[in-house]
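Record type: monomer structure entry
Structure origin: computed from sequence
Chain ID: A
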Amino acid sequence: MLNLMKLELRKFKIMGYIRSAVIATLIIFGFMILVSYSPKMHGINVFEDYSSVLSKIGVLVRGTFTIFAAVLLGRFVIDEFNHKTITVLFMYPIKRHKIIAAKLMVVIAFTFLCIVASTIILSTLYFVVNSFTHFVSDELTLTLVLQHAAKSGFYALAASFTALIPLYFGMRKYSIPTTIVSSVIMVLLTSSDGGGFSLNDIIIVPILLAAIGIAVGYMAIRKIDQIDIR
């Protein structure tokens, strides 16, 4: 399986996606600074403490890379069927479901690592900038860092599997736009902040969505042998 995953990484030139992930992280950072700076000019503090800062970073990162995962699914899986290049892969002396499983594992692993890395980078950069600008007067404690680290790890893992859900819609007509749009809708529904509350704040919601994502991935792997690729 690891060898298949490595082949997928080479085939799709993963460094290009890593650069895109870095750019996305920098855009999120710019947004966080803009949101913090503009109201500050009028004496308004958007973030009351570091807890709210870290929570907002988490929401933005998970939403961004959930959509990013949909792009990967479209490129790694759906596009293969659209251009019939999947027929070449299925000629290899490897079972079909292993090929698809490797593709999905690459997307899951890449999404998880991007969320974790981006969260760490953004939190660190914001802390450094805040030490000069004092957007947030609250003190960042080790206890808070550890609490959010555990929370972020859980949400990152859940989001990585949740990101597979759009595959169900995209595979119906082998449509990349459908995959991406369904991902955007899912992020808007689960991450929209209404009065300081979102669906993801209910612990069972990310767990349930992750379970659905796993089920979608499993069904895609199990049914791949039944798909007519001619």
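Annotation 1: The chain is about 75% helix and 0% strand.
Annotation 2: The mean pLDDT is 85.
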